[in-house]
Structures are given as C-alpha cells and as structure tokens.
Amino acid sequence: MEIKVVENAASVEADILVVNQFEGGKTSVDLANKYAIEEDNFKGKFGETYLLPTYGNAPYRKVLVIGFGKKEDFCPDKLREAVAKSIKKCSQMEAKKVAFAFDGVDFDYSEQLTLGAFIADYKFDKYKSEKKDKHIAEVFVQADAEKIKKAEKIATAMAFARNLSNEPAQFATPSELANIAQDFGLDTTIYNKEECEKMGMGAFLAVGQGSINEPKFIHMKYTCDNPKKRIAIIGKGICFDSGGLDIKPASSMITMKDDMSGAACILGVMSIIREFNPQVEVHGLIAACENMPSGKAYKPGDIVTAMNGKTIEIDNTDAEGRLTLADALCYACELKVDEVIDLATLTGACVVALGTHASGIMGNDEELVHNLIDTAKRHGEKFWELPLWDEYFDSLKSEIADMKNSGARWGGASVAGVFLKKFVKDVKWAHIDIAGTAYLEKPQKEFISGATGAGVRTILNYILEQ
Ligand code: BES
Ligand code: MN
Ligand code: ZN
Q1: Is 132 a residue whose pLDDT tops 90?
Q2: Which of 27, 204, 286, 376 is the right S-S partner for 383, CB 3.0 to 4.6 Å?
Q3: How far apart are alpha carbons 430 and 233 in whole angstroms?
Q4: Does 433 sit in the ligand 1 pocket, CB within 6 Å?
Q5: Whose CA is nearest to atom 13 of ligand 1?
C-alpha cells in the first residue's frame, strides 16, 4: 500500500472516496448528504458506515461515509480506528484506490491516518493456499507528506514485528531470529551456547536447555557520531513457552508462539532504525530460546546463577521470561548505557490487571517511565504504571538461594518487576509488560486477531524524540 498526498482528494479518480460525518453534522459531499442524511437518516455514530454509488457522476465510483461520532469525543485514536474500519470496508469491496477527504477535524491526522490504514491493510496469509483478502494499492489524502513518510516507516516496522510474532514457532526459532538480526546492516554479534556459558548466563541457559533448538543471545548495535544518549532495548525472546516441566494447560499454551513478541518489537525497531538516522546509540538485545520439557530440561528446585553472580532457586519453570531477562539486563548494564528498556510478554497477572488494551510499565526512574507513558499516548498506545515496591519481593525470598523465580500469585506483574530489578545496576530502567497487548485472540479495534506489534510505535518514537 502506498499513501499519496494530493491537493484535493475528492477530485482523484478512485474506487471509493471516504468522507466523514460527525453526529448531527454533514459530510463534504452533497450527494451523500442528500441520500445518507435526508433520506436514510444516517446519524454519523462512531464507526457506522454508509455506502453510496455515484453512477459515473463523480471521479470516484462510490462514496463511503464513516461516522466520527460526537465531535467533542473525537480524538486521534478514534480517527485511526475509523480509518482502519474504512480501509477494511474498502478491501472487502476489492477497491484498489481509496481517497480520504476529511472535513472539520481540528488536529493534524497525517500520522494516525497512515497508521490506521497500514494496520488495517495487514494480513497474515502466507500459509493460505488461497489469498482471499485483497490489499489496497493506493490511498490518496490531503495531509502532511513528511509526517506520512515517517508514519509509513513506523507502520512497516510494526508489520515486520507482527509477521515475526505470528510466525509459527517451528519456523521462528532462536537461530532464525539471529539470522534475521544479521540482515539489518547493523553491527551485530550472535553469541552461541558456549559463549553465553563463558559470560556466565546461567539463568538464560537453564531455560533453553530443554529444547533441541540452540539458544542464541543477540546483540544489535546502531550508532552515530556523538550520540546524545545511549539506550539499550531488550525484548523477551521465548520462541515457544510450553511452561517447561511445569507444563501449561493446552488452553494457555495455544498462543505461546507469541512469547517472543518483545523480541519481535526490538527486531522491528532495529529493522528500520538506519532509515531514521537518529542521534542516539541504540543496542537491541534478545536472549532467544525455547522453554520446553524434556530429559534435559531445568527442573523445579534447581538453582541457577545469573551473570551478576546472583543465585536463583527455580520455583516454577513457567516463570522463565524473567530468568532470560535477568541475564539480558546484566549484559545491558555492562554496556554502560544511560537507559535500559525491556519489553516482555511476562505475566498473565498483567493481563488480568489491564486486559488487552494497555501494557503495564514499571521502572526505577520516574522521569523515564513517565516519558514512555507520554510517548505511548501521543502515538496511539496505552501504557499504565504498576508499582514496583520492595514488599513485592517478600514472596521471592528463598531459604537456600538469593531468590526464587516465582512467588505470590497476587500482584504477579509487580512481583516479576521486582525480580528483574535485582539484575539492574546503576542505570535508568523501565520494564514494559506486553503480555496482554502483543497478541489478540479476537479482533480488537483496528487490529485483526493475532500479533499487534505492541511497543514498536512507542519505542521508535521515543528514540526519535531524543
Ligand atoms: N509467557 C507467560 C506470560 C503470558 C501469559 C503471556 C499470558 C501472554 C499471555 C510467562 O512466561 C508465564 O508463564 N508466566 C507465569 C508466571 C508464573 C508461573 C509465576 C504466569 O503469568 O502465569
Ligand atoms: Mn512461562
Ligand atoms: Zn513466557
């Protein structure tokens, strides 16, 4: 799909012209006002649509009126959702060229229109022998060309991340993620099992030891002259989470190919970063492995040692993400960066707390956490702060090691957070739990079911706004 800026979208030869109607208002097309409003009493409620053929009397073959709802409730998030809905309608009608002529919107919608169009045009049909859904070829808009170009790149990175998370675990293995990371033209190092052993990554390697697929630790580095800041971004890269010996029930395991969505986000960001040439140094880190039960698997009761020397008693092999992140955080801290941000499908508890609409965020630096929440908000994601009080560590106390990897069920997202904190040293750090937002079991707003590319928009914009 390509977005083209035009002076007047209503004069473009298109299959469909999309116009908006606020509740109680009119559209910019007289014909639509006559039929939709006067004859058919179309109200313009949010998300409602009305379709009208033009019978050769206009450059466009049809007009699609999209309801914007009450003007006072309208916002960039709603615009993105409305655009996505329109694009889905247009692709059902097999339209190739779609023009958008919005009227009466009092904010710059270049970015959200672009995101909405790309998110809605996304399909994961590579394994369908018959590709039913058609893509829109061209979208014509009256908006800011620069902002559109930037949003198009971000949308491409989101689609990249969505493809990776949607990819079955049989293909998206640790080695495959490592191969992908090496294709970005960045300064990339892949550490194999022996090299991770030498670095002392005992927590990460314990998780991976039950699988026949070898673990890989991935380090991608983007740099520039005189960077203003140095940031490390870490993605949880569990290519499949069966739970290990503490095996998950089938109903929980079914979506666990998505347990590398944090890694997919980092790969999405790193796949496009050179095109933006930001004035920051960015390290993308992924401890990639599979959590599998086998004769070689780590066991409840085992004690493992992380890279910083801390010992961990395994209470539950299904609390594996935090073990892999522990070593990735230690590694990140040795890079002497200014900030570390991790993204992880870490806890079911976060999904219970916030559902599928918001990611949980916590950290050791108020300003970093608040900047990330604000960046998310401005670019169409929702981050919500959860506490990281020391009390949450109480249930992680071990009789025989420095800590256990799991404890109380209540407040589980914060318990995981304080566990991670033990591996963060002298650096500003934020942890984003995307367990609820990264993968949808049913369609939601602009998204079809499956991977969403959670975090990509926010992390890229956060980097670009430094
Ligand atoms: N990958 C899961 C978390 C998850 C749950 C992600 C649901 C997406 C949807 C994680 O590894 C896990 O299994 N967490 C356990 C931790 C528990 C054993 C302390 C959980 O949340 O139940
Ligand atoms: Mn798990
Ligand atoms: Zn997991």
Answers
A1: no
A2: 376
A3: 10
A4: no
A5: 318
**pTM of the full structure:** 0.98
Evaluate whether 117 touches 97 at the Cβ level (below 8 Å): no
The pLDDT, as a whole number, for residue 14 is 98
Best probe residue, ligand 1, of 252, 265, 346 (max atoms within 8 Å of C-beta): 346
- List, for residues 18-37, the tens digit of each pLDDT value: 999 999 999 999 999 999 99
Q: Is 456 helix (H, G, I), strand (E, B) or coil?
A: helix
- DSSP per-residue letters across 234-276: EEEEEEEE--TTSPPPHHHHTTGGGGGHHHHHHHHHHHHHHHH
Region 290-307: mean pLDDT is 99
Pocket lining: 262 vs ligand 1, CB cutoff 6 Å: no
State the Cα torsion 217-222-227-231 to the nearest 10°: -40
> For residue range 85-130, what is the model confidence (pLDDT) as tens digits?
999 999 999 999 999 999 999 999 999 999 999 999 999 999 999 9
With a 6 Å cutoff on the Cβ, whether 406 touches ligand 1 is: yes
Is 322 tagged catalytic? yes
- Pick from 373, 214, 230: nearest CA to 296: 214
26: annotated active-site residue: no
Instruction: Report the pLDDT value the prediction gives residue 70, as an integer from 0 to 100.
Output: 98
Residue among 387, 438, 411 at smallest CA distance from 165: 438
Strands 359-363 and 428-433: antiparallel
Please name the helix (run of DSSP H) or strand (run of DSSP E) that holds residue 463, with its range, or none: helix 456-464
pLDDT of residue 306: 99
Pairing relationship of beta strands 49-53 and 62-69 according to DSSP bridges:
antiparallel
Taking the centre of ligand 3 as the mean of its atom positions, its distance from the CA of residue 149, in whole angstroms, is: 35
Instruction: Go through the domains of the chain in sequence order and give each one's CATH number.
Output: 2-142 (3.40.220.10), 154-464 (3.40.630.10)
Tens of pLDDT, residues 133-149:
789 999 999 999 999 99
Report the nearest atom of ligand 1 relative to the CA of 259: 1
455 to 277, 319, 378, 417: CA distances (angstroms): 20, 22, 13, 18
Tell me the average pLDDT across 154-179. Answer: 98
